[in-house]
UniProtKB/TrEMBL annotation:
It comes from Polyplosphaeria fusca. One of its GO terms (biological process) is cellular response to oxidative stress. Gene3D superfamilies: 1.10.520.10, Peroxidase, domain 2 (1.10.420.10). Its EC number is 1.11.1.-. The keyword Cell membrane does not apply. It is an enzyme of class 1 (oxidoreductase). This is Peroxidase.
């Protein structure tokens, strides 16, 4: 199958862009609306007083703040998953978030990239600016050695030391804390020393006391309400009945409120400041990690493109083209698809989706989809096709045949179509599988080889080689198969999106 521009960028672009409607990634729905709590269903969730979009940012903060930038250790590496029993990481955010993210982990998407992505999504969907996103983080295999997360009772000096260790000066620490504390709440359930039980009600069962009057909107309100002592007055870490729990007050006042005043003056520019600071946080990684290029939005994106065989066992090339139309423009009803000097007129599918990309004001971009099925006689031996002047590469020499490549429980069946002159035994097939692991809710990816039988069948001039393998356990998410010819990857197939609904 073909993933543009590559499997990793495709998967992450899908989460970022395909927000709602047809082919949506289920990632966005967790924080739609932004007050949503995804970890409990129905009225239990609605009345929980918890906010998934906020939890995701708190997870980022706790994974990040134990970074020691001068030693090059820690930062965004998902080590927080191993550290949830530490007193400094109390609260439900960590396990809730990792449980939701776990099905999205696979060979191309480590948990650490999802920790970063969670905050990017919270910014993108909940009223902030679109945040740039670079993948390439590497998951820690154990808890980090460094401890020390600021808690409500931590004194100012130590709080600033923790931030400094992670590369943040006083001004940026104040601003980052205000940016984080524009979403969500402090909960009596977890922090009774900050919030008393008066907040616990049938419609707020965990007793969430909000940081500002809009707990689901990324806005500068936390700053203005703090400075004017209106609304939530900066929230429980400013106003707590327990003076020693007023950590935000101590921090904001540490420079005589100069930073908070400056943030207020910025107006909506506060959002740009937050994006810059969050960018620094998500990109704080251990020194052995090099982040990759930013994920680029694809206005024209082929998805699910693969060679296969039709009911008469003839080769076909199938897939769907996704077109993003910005708000205010009309999405196309037809589309020209060109291959081998011939053009095909595609009709749009009835179902469309929407995206924060292409957004203008309160209107979203529209995603429309155009399915295609091209006879193999036209596509075979071609090395590319094109749509709206964008060219996409292809090959049909050796491919994983999706119809008979599947996973049932822990059993994998793989089929490879290749030239009739190839020996099945000369093809190498590997599978990378995410499994549960001890000590963290983050799955761990392991690879193994699939041996192909020497027996084969023929279809439309191809030899089909097959093999079966048993996995050590049932996968927790998407598995990736690769076929190699002469030591080079000839084709990749992503199988079994599962709960993540890839
Ligand atoms: C002095 C530093 C900080 C302290 C002492 C602190 C402390 C806390 C506490 C006690 C909570 C309540 C958690 C709960 O009840 O579930 C909380 C919530 C939160 N914190 Fe902080 N925090 C600090 C800085 C930050 C920073 C820098 C960020 C973001 C980058 C951040 C993001 C959040 C978010 C989004 C929530 C809401 C979580 C929810 O609603 O579930 N915090 N913080």
């Amino acid at each position: 199958a073909f993933y543009y521009p590559d499997p990793q960028s495709h998967l992450l672009e899908h989460i970022l862009v395909d927000n709602w409607g047809a082919y949506a990634s289920n990632f966005s729905s967790a924080i739609t609306p932004c007050t949503n709590y995804v970890s409990q269903r129905g009225s239990t969730g609605l009345n929980s007083g918890r906010t998934t979009a906020a939890q995701w940012m708190r997870v980022l903060f706790h994974d990040f703040i134990t970074a020691n930038v001068s030693a090059g250790t820690g930062g965004i590496d998902a080590s927080i998953g191993f550290e949830t029993s530490r007193e400094e990481n109390k609260g439900s955010a960590f396990n809730d978030s990792f449980a939701f993210w776990a099905p999205y982990v696979n060979e191309y998407v480590p948990m650490a990239d999802l920790v970063a992505l969670g905050t990017v999504m919270s910014n993108n969907l909940c009223g902030s600016r679109l945040m740039p996103y670079q993948p390439g983080r590497i998951d820690a295999t154990a808890a980090g050695h460094t401890t020390g997360v600021p808690a409500p009772e931590t004194d100012l000096e130590e709080t600033l030391l923790f931030f400094d260790r992670a590369g943040f000066n006083e001004t940026d620490s104040i601003a980052l804390t205000a940016c984080g504390h524009t979403l969500g709440s402090v909960h009596h359930g977890g922090f009774p020393e900050v919030v008393d039980d008066s907040t616990v009600t049938p419609t707020n069962t965990n007793g969430g006391a909000n940081f500002d009057s809009t707990r689901g909107i990324f806005d500068p309100l936390v700053v203005s309400e703090y400075l004017s002592s209106t609304g939530e007055k900066g929230g429980p870490l400013v106003t707590s009945f327990n003076v020693s729990s007023r950590s935000d007050l101590r921090l904001y006042e540490s420079d005589g409120n100069a930073t908070m005043q400056a943030l207020l003056k910025q107006g909506d520019g506060f959002l740009d400041t937050c994006v810059d600071l969050f960018k620094k946080v998500v990109n704080t990684v251990p020194s052995h990690v090099t982040l990759k290029e930013e994920i680029q939005l694809m206005e024209v994106k082929p998805v699910n493109v693969t060679f296969g065989f039709d009911k008469d066992d003839k080769l076909i090339l199938t897939g769907t083209i996704r077109i993003l139309t910005p708000a205010g423009s009309r999405s196309p009803k037809t589309l020209e698809f060109s291959i081998a000097g011939k053009s095909y007129n595609l009709q749009s599918d009835p179902e469309t989706g929407t995206s924060v990309f292409g957004r203008s004001g309160s209107e979203y971009g529209t995603l429309s989809y155009f399915s295609f099925s091209i006879p193999g006689s036209k596509a075979r031996k071609e090395t590319s096709f094109s749509v709206l002047g964008h060219s996409f590469s292809l090959q049909s020499e050796t491919f994983i045949y999706p119809d008979t490549t599947m996973i049932n429980g822990a059993i994998v069946n793989a089929s490879i179509a290749t030239s009739t002159s190839t020996e099945c035994g000369n093809l190498k097939v590997t599978i990378a599988v995410p499994y549960k692991q001890q000590g963290t809710l983050a799955p761990k990816v392991q690879s193994q080889q699939i041996t192909l039988n020497s027996k084969s069948v023929e279809k439309d001039g191809f030899k089909i080689c097959s093999g079966i393998a048993e996995l050590e356990n049932v996968p927790t998410g998407l598995v990736s198969l690769k076929v190699f010819t002469d030591g080079k990857v000839a084709d990749v197939l992503l199988v079994n999106g599962g709960a993540a609904g890839w």
